[in-house]
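Feature request, filed as a ticket because there's no other form

It would be nice if the structure record came with a short human-readable summary line next to the tokens. Right now we just get the raw output. Example of a typical job, pasted below so the devs can see what we mean:
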Amino acid sequence: MQTFYTLDRLVCGTSKESLSTVTEWESMPPFEYLEAPKVEKRWRSSLQGLGREIKDGSHEETPVPQSEILFSSIADIGKSPKKGSKAENKSETLLRRIDGIYFGIAKLENAQGELRRNLRENLKGIKLVDLMLERIVVAARRRFSMIDIYLKTDEHHEVEQHFDDAQLPGMHVMILGR
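Raw output as currently delivered:
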């Protein structure tokens, strides 16, 4: 569940309101949260806004750097640049957020695989396990689909894949100003 919540923060942003909303989602029963229309509605809205920012080249500063939410200890993502540095520009901020989202997708896929292996190994023959796993997979696919739809690239922008095709088949990230 934590990987879902981390992805929520990356997709929905880091304003106080967004963080409060995600914190509220964390208190919901897990399967209610996974299937909640209000979560999907907020994701859709956030991804549409991010897509507009990418296409327009506009970006509103977020009060908490995205990298501090998920990546504070991951060396290859690096730390957020200090305020006022040349790297702290709109394109870099958007790229860090997009990188975070796609990294979060890979982490969620890995967590799902591990959960599947553990539950099937430890609870062999219990039909409930397959039903639970299916609900988790469906929730993840809906979220991945929204990301793919709203952050879809178009032929007028350069495209770069940030992960191997084996990890994220068909998903590409739009690169700004490169």
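Something like this underneath would help us a lot:
Strands lie at 159-160, 173-174.
The longest strand covers residues 159-160.
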